[in-house]
Structure prediction request, 70 residues.
Amino acid sequence: MRVMDKWSELLLGLLLVVVGITVAFYSQSWGDWNFWSAAGTFFKGAVFWFVIGLGALFILLGISDLKSKK
Prediction:
């Protein structure tokens, strides 16, 4: 039995994203509860690890191609 259909899931997800962004924006002046700074730090770390992972993936794909093209 499904409790939520696709539209309610979509609307709930959209609501959570909008509320999260709104809280992060207005929390800039809340001192220690500044979610905007934490989100920025998390995003920069995620971008860094994504680039490192993508580089590692290309290195592994290149090694695999070198091994199979003999």
The radius of gyration is 21 Å. The helical segments are 6-26, 35-68. The chain is about 80% helix and 0% strand.
